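tool=predict chain=A
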Amino acid sequence: MVLSVSERTFTQEVLESPIPVLVNFEAPWCGLCRIIHPLLLQFQAQCGDEIKLVGINADQNFKLSNTYRLKSLPTLLLIENGMIRHRLEGFRGREDLRLALEEIKLEFSTSHKSYNSPKSADLECRSA
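tool=predict ok
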């Protein structure tokens, strides 16, 4: 399940999160947003409690959309310790997103080798 976040809850749920957060900026009218939703749920299941997945309605949260300079929907941001670690935008379909999520998994496991052994990161975030 994807946690729905708003401007009111963004700081607590995303910027102050003890684990990295994959933020999905989407809108109800966005067809590609609906198409990629199952892939995002699969990604969340693969990474378990190591990455939090949240969704933000870009139309209802204009300040956040403006702050993060959204150019297209969906836009995905991997935010860790309040900083954008990875930005995904402009993908054209499921395969583009799948490859982009694999890249995030690789970056995530690489950036956390000092916290986790490489084997645990490989097993938990790279299995597809």
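The mean pLDDT is 84. The chain is about 45% helix and 20% strand.
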